[in-house]
Amino acid sequence: MAQRLKEDVRARLVDAALSEFVRQGWRGARLVDIAAAAGASIGNVYRYFPDKEALLRAAVPPELGTELVRLLRGRVRALGAMGDWRLGDAAGSDRAAALLAFWIAHRREVVVLLGRAEGSPLAHVRPLVAGELTRAAARYLRDHSDRPVPREVRFVLERIFEGTLGMIVDVLAAHETPEEISAAFGAFWRFQLAGLQALLAPPRPPRGAGGRARR
Fold first, then answer.
1. Three-state secondary structure readout of 104-129
2. Are 45 and 134 in a shared domain?
3. Which of 101, 114, 141, 150 is the most exposed place for a label (fewest CB within 10 A)?
């Protein structure tokens, strides 16, 4: 019985820490508030975790960040092979469905990884994901146009994917049920995928260059 109670205290501390990291971010979360939310003393926190970093590792295991990046890479590769990106939502893409399922299963952890980890040992995950997405889109452009990606277009791609990560965090922070999360991402993907396909399509020649002359 005693051992089970100890495991229960540890589990409550981890759950409270995860909620506090979501609410306050890594820098704003305080051990005293985590202890209070778990119904434990600050002394109990230190019995199980030497510091806030140890609590973070327990609440958001590093392998979750690795798995998130892996799923996103697969998602982007699958899009690159699709003719019509507008069909690349969870209903039309196994990779999208797997990514969505991961977001739903690890809702709070993903919020921390992509939006609340500044200053922590996990702070590298968000820029890593943004860079992966930008490079993949730029590679798609190069493969389909045989020309270097213009600096201005790369700038736009970087900002788009920064916004994408912000949207992922906002959706997961504002919604809790699988149905709500799926509906929100469905709406976002309908908007984003059509826009990305238009942006990454080969540019049309100016009117007058083989078409009707400008008036």
1. HHCHHHHHHHHHHCCCCCCCCHHHHH
2. no
3. 150
Range of the domain at 73: 62-200
Based on the fold, state whether residues 74 and 156 are members of the same structural domain.
Answer: yes
Instruction: State which H helix or E strand residue 110 sits in.
Output: helix 107-111
Query: Is the Cβ–Cβ distance between 149 and 138 less than 8 Å?
Result: yes
- For residue 44 the two structure tokens come to 């109990």
Reading the block at residue 141, the tokens are: 């452009």
Distance (Å, rounded) from C-alpha 56 to C-alpha 20? 11
Length of the chain: 215
If one counts the domains in the chain, the total is 2
Q: Which residue has the higher pLDDT, 87 or 123?
A: 123
Q: Read off the pLDDT of residues 75-98 as tens digits, 9 standing for 90 and up.
A: 888 877 777 777 888 988 899 999
195 shares a domain with 131: yes
Domain shared by 51 and 86, yes or no: no
pTM given for the model: 0.86
CB atoms near residue 19 (< 10 Å): 17
Q: Does 212 reside within a domain?
A: no
Question: Same structural domain for residues 28 and 107?
Answer: no
Question: Are 99 and 71 contacting, i.e. CB atoms less than 8 angstroms apart?
Answer: yes
CATH number assigned to the domain comprising residue 54? 1.10.10.60
Nearest partner of 162 among 131, 135, 121, judged by Cα:
131
pLDDT tens digits, 150-196: 888 889 889 998 999 999 999 999 999 999 999 999 999 999 888 88
Which two structure tokens, joined as six digits, stand for 99? 């990514």
